[in-house]
Amino acid sequence: MSIKKIPMRTCVITKEKLEKRDLLRIVRTPDGTVIVDTTGKSNGRGAYLKKDIAVIKKAQSTKILEKVLNVSIPDEVYEEALTKCK
Asked: Is position 1 within any domain?
């Protein structure tokens, strides 16, 4: 029996390496919109945030996602991310 490999990703705020299921993926799609990717498979440039309210609020205040994804991010995306981490 083989052991299944667990995908690890890095949070852009805390720089922690965590399992992919413990993170939220924020994606800039090819047409320039920003979405919260619940499947982890959406097309586009992605950045990961830890599923923690404090981390999401810090990402919003520091605008780190805007720097990483090179696009302005509306507040609705952060609100949706907050609802997903509960």
From this structure: no
Q: How far apart are CA 42 and CA 5, in angstroms?
A: 21
In this structure, the number of other CB atoms found within 10 A of the CB of residue 1 comes to 3
Q: What is the dihedral of CA 51, 44, 41, 27, to 10 degrees?
A: 20
Q: What is the pLDDT of residues 40-77, one digit of tens each?
A: 899 999 999 999 999 999 999 999 999 999 999 999 99
CATH number at residue 57: 3.30.1230.10
* 53-62 vs 75-84: helix crossing angle, rounded to 10: 170
